[in-house]
Amino acid sequence: MMILVNTDYISGKKLEMLGLVKGSTIQTKNVGKDIMQSFKNLVGGELTAYNEMMNDARALATKRMVVEAEQLGADAVVNIRYASSAIAAGAAEVIAYGTAVKFMGDE
User: Strands 76-88 and 91-106, how do they pair?
Assistant: First the structure.
């Protein structure tokens, strides 16, 4: 199982850096849900359809990052970061990136 952390170390492990790995996706919601979310904007409240969209996007971007790390023979990905940007109304790009590492033994 791949270890994923947002620190630049893993306690008790010496790490060999393998390189940058990343995964990304662009997600959108359907028009019907989008219209309902627009109404919610007017009256206030949590935009659950967008929360679901962003959670799905982060999960897929993370999975793609892990696949890239596995292809390098990594045991873990450290210093993981996420970034997102709006592409169009109701669509967002999410990227997950970090440093793939291999364990070199106990410290």
Answer: antiparallel
